[in-house]
Amino acid sequence: MTAAWCNGQPADADVLAAVALVNYGHFTSMRCLDGAVRGLDLHLARLQHATRALFSTDLDLDHVRRQARLAFDAAGHRDAWLRLTVFSRAFDFRAPLAPVAPDLLVSVGPASEWTGAPLRLHAVVFRRHRPEIKHVGTFALFDLRRQAMAAGWDDALFVDDARQLIEGTTWNLGLWDGQGVTWPVGPALRGTQERLLQRGLEALGVPQRIRPVGLDELAGFAGAFACNARGIRAVGAVEGHRFTDGAGGQPWLAQALAACPWQPL
Q: What is the pTM of this model?
């Protein structure tokens, strides 16, 4: 089960209604093991940037860490999934420029791994609104995933009008050529897992490139993978193209992730 706390207190119906009915805010999700998180600095930086952008104010990041630790300890899980949502009950959509104090909603549930067969992806022309912010407006993401699954695919891969790769519904894409990783550049939400992998691969000396990649270039790569805070998943096919490396370079990726330390809350 998932439990939720708002500003250090158990979240009541009024708090949850404020989040759901206004639907204006942002969040980050992380795995917490024994009170520590990989890439905690990246999660905190994401929250600070988005709070300034949406509410014209700063977050007290020490307060955020304390509230996250309180919720983690209260939930009683050694290995847990935390979602930190920043919203504001003082926000008025009729006067959206007014700086307002943020509220912090922390939800905690048991951790889970992102596992399964290699993903088969359907390419969809789409660009999310304010892609640099992990905001709570997720309708389009889940609807496009649902449409892809209804058509017989596992998920949707977003491309632009020129058929260049951008990102997945809730994950970033990496391409493996047998020697190194290419990260498609585009108007995407740059995920914490993507950045952790980039750090780890750099530490291992694995070549990386960040550049535009078109759908018609996929034949030049042996494999591909999707990554988000829940883990790494191989990609088996995009539209009619099938990758020959079913692992998508995952042995190297696992080593890269292992090189990134867990940071205490």
A: 0.95
